[in-house]
From TrEMBL:
Keywords, comma-separated and alphabetical: ANK repeat, Membrane, Repeat, Transmembrane, Transmembrane helix
Listed transmembrane segments: 387-408, 420-450, 462-482
Name under which the protein is recorded: PGG domain-containing protein
GO CC list: plasma membrane
Amino acid sequence: MESPQNKLFEAAAKGCVISLQQLLIDDPLILDRVIINHYSETPLHVAAMLGHIDFVNEIIHMKPQLTNELNSQLSSPLHLASAKGHVDVVRALLAVDHHTCLACDSNGLTPLHLAAIKGRDEVMELLLQAQPDAARLTSYGDGTILHLCVKNHQLEALKRLLTAVSEPEFVNSSDADGNTVLHLAVGDKQVETTKLLLNVAALEVNALNHEGMTAMDVLIRSRRDVRDSEITESLEQAGGTRAALEVNPLNHEGITAMDVLIPSRRDVRDSEITESLEQAGGTRAAIETNTNTAAGDGLPIQVNDWLDEKKNALMLVATLNATMAFQIGVSPPGGVWQDDNFLINSHGHMVDPNGNTNISQPVNSTNDVVLFPHQAGCPVLERNAPFIYMLFYISNTIGFFFSVGIIFMLMSGFHSKNRYFVLIMTVVACIAISATASTYFSAVIGLTALRTKELKVEKFAVFAWCGLTVLVIIFQAVRFFVKPSRRPLQE
């Protein structure tokens, strides 16, 4: 049999006032039981969310304190009605208690925030009339309600809010990253929103975010778009400028042709273009701004980006190489002997491969003579191909310790901003990789040497790899020493 509480929620979902009245006649305390029981929401939540105004009026008449009850997401009935845009329900709930406008849900959003995000203009008007201060409340990390309007592309809601509240501290408020609504609108290429904001007298056009960038800086550093020219024109007409930028007689962004080339996508034509620019006296612009240099090291952002990418690549290669070297070092190819086998000397005594006769294992007969003596735990490859195993062991040790050395040096940060340090680490990485390759070739040759004398493929691969390694090292030397001026690096 269905419980009275379930019938109550069904009546709320249908908006049936007659069923509610009958349930109250049968059990006058049924609404009180809903309040004290652990339900995720009340019947008023359900009716408010679905817009059943008659049911809402009836239930708040019988039990007005239900308007302050919160569901599992800390949302009041006013939150749900505002988000859905049920104007009559919002009006009825505000008539009971207009202070619920200031309540925040689990996401830090008030009913006004939800109405703005969803673009419920009429609901916003009612909420602002009931509690104008609700517009000044901030959400968790997302800034003010103005930021929410821009992020959710609610232009009409933004107009209504700027009309209702236009104080400078409200219009120029920032989010967790220090961005004002103008920063967000420009970065998202919202042309109409940008024009609307620039017409607000209290707006600071050149406000700085936490990265020291104005709205113009955000636009210039953002992805290129067909709307850029229109936004740029609007910003310039409103007095928008870049942050602390000394513009040379170059272009309106203070960037020379050399500046355009250096951070651009790498191309085989770069060297020819660079040479032509240098012959014509082309140089980089002397841009003195905190948006073009990395804090604390004085290097251009392009240089630091390149160095960081190079160091990350070296760290990844060294880690993988060290892992492989360690694994193959403790598990050599061919495995290890699982038992002890010894020789019988001319006196009939058992001796180990080192000539020791202190062996406790008895000799039963001359059948105990062993042709391949070995000890448990020793590599099989060492007994079968000693010279190849020595090459394998030396190569693997070099690869492991060089890789560990790269990891240690990069983690220590020793001269990490020096291009010669990066060169040395790159050469060391090449040696470590070559040692790992030598380890592989030694292992393959050792495993196949007993089966065949024809190792043409392995020999060709060894010579090819050695040649490739030499070419890479020569290329790095030319790249860093012969033509250092053509790289965006500083010592």
